[in-house]
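Appendix B. Raw example, untouched.
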Amino acid sequence: MKKSFKFLGISGRDAAVTKWGSLCNKLQGLKLTGRLILILIIGFGVTACPDSDIDSTGKTALPTPAGVNVVATDTSLTLVWNAVEGADSYTVDTGTELKSIPGGTTSFDLKPLTADPKVYPIRVRAVAYSGDPDYFDSAYSEVKSVEIAEYIFNFEDDEQALPNIRSRSIMPFSGGGKAVSGLKPYGKTLERVVVPSQIGSAAVTAIAPNAFADGTNIMTSVSLPDTIITIGAGAFTGTSITDIVIPESVLTIGNGAFANCIVLVVVVFVSVEPPAMGDGVFEGVDSDNISIVVPEESEDNYRDTIEEAAPDIADRITTITTVSISVTTMPSKTTYFVGDTLDTAGIVVTAAMSDSTTHTVTTGLSYNPTHLDSIGPATITVTYLNFTATFTVTVNALPSGGTDPVLNGTWSGTIMGEDWEDKIDLILNNGTWDWKQDGVSVRKGTYTASGGNMTYTTTLCVIGGSVTDGSDPSDDNQSEVIWGTRDEAIKMILEMLQKDPDMFSSEAEAIEYLDTMYFISGTGTYNATTLNLTVYGEAVTFTKKGTTGPGEGGEIDAVLNGTWKGIVENEWTNVDNVPCNNFPVCGGVPDCPDCKWEESSETFEWELTFVLNNGVYEMADDGITFQEGNYSTSGGKITLTPTLVYSDEFVDEGKWYTREEMKTAYMTERGLSEESAEENTGNSFDPTTFDYSISNGGNTLEFSLHGMIGFSLTRN
């Protein structure tokens, strides 16, 4: 008996309501009206109503760990949670790696995360004993966002951040700039201090005066991000730092910033333009042993600057710098599973100088790759300044039954028939998955994955009830859904077959139908961004969604990150104000009944530069930035929300405006009413949504914006 319809519990289009729909009507009196997302079989004698806390074998999930919190003391930074009875161990997911914690321990030391003090989305789950007859692993706790830097540093506003950021072409942040004003008690226990580039939504743009100079910290190494613009007076006075790299972004170093740093031996300036330096910047350092390393082409400029600010070390300027670097001690961890993140703890990188000396490099190091997504030996490149070295780690396939963490997240795809289309979200989480169709959960199951290959199985499916999409408020055909295992569904369908033998030609065909349309299973392939599965006999490609970012509550498609450029052709309408009786010099004043306008149009081309960076964007016209703001993405659409707009409408030299500043300018400079000013300001600041698509191997971005249809940008 050949079926011409999709599985009604999943596809549920009115056109697919055939014998199954009629049978359900007859048995349950269901009214098939409106646009049903799900039309489901209601069985006889089904008393069990399994949910996601019970698996197909009848085991129960361990309770989800509660009380997940961060405890900071003067000497420790620890993640804690409440014990779960029956747990053999716990898994801590930091967002970058998974850590297994013994069952008798309900804490995790966060100190390793201080090496990269960003925001970590941390969650915890309880793991059942292997072979436990009663329990399986719990669900993960709700994500707790932990911003490590807030436990290390004190911050204050940096009032000069925005103009300085623009002068250095540094990517702006929506929250302006912050200055590090000191170390918190826990931060004072760290020998290696890494200053973050961002705290909250603000860029870290300054080291405040005397920030580290209280004499109570044990800091021997400090790493500054390339967002730092100002190093304040006395910022590092008397500290025990041995070396420091001054980023290219730094414009100013205050009086005595490094005074009395008696063990400071290497200062590396990256910028070809020397920063402005105050008096006594290096007063009290060991002038016989310190080396001031500068770019070769800038030696004379630096010598002039340092002779004025620190004459006693002017002769320590050198361009005879590093000639090579090498890994002299391997990191503690050298064996990984595919999908792991590189851990460089314990590594020692040594720089060889052209004068035959060597020194250990503790700052300014970068590693590539950091995500290990290929099985076999992996060569890691270490970069310091313009020099590189390599070392090798081993990447193994996940053990049998393992789950590649790269799959964790939400994957979206579309399944299409002749006259229907289903939007599918697959939520994958460390071996379990949830199938949502048009936002409604209809299947749950398990999967294993390693080395780009995946095997999946459905363990639970909605086998009773009906759900609508809510588009018809008068639709009362929504009943409580019933979840069932495969065995329960088989029992149900065989009982129905006894009552209506014409439904299927045999019991085997009925069971085959269940396995094909309800309890689907199979294999697939994947990489970090694409998941390929066969569903209903058709190949379906799922794309991984981004993570929540600083946009307008949406999601951030990480594939968009980067700089995009292209030539845009557009039509511009010029509007000229014509003098009138009330305003003989210039017409066009709002609320003037006699105002007149003359319009003319012209076509022109311009180069659009679009910089996207994890929810923050910048747009430029022929290289001149004119708009900055936040963005979010969802379902192939991107929404831009401007926060700053550059305009020369009110002053000839032009300036940057916030929304409120532009509204005020329209009212005071143009004489607009508040309502008209708000309307004009909205043209520049209201959120704009447009469609986008990525093609050409991730190098072409096509979209429409402000009525400009069908142009494309190329990744720069």
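End of appendix B.
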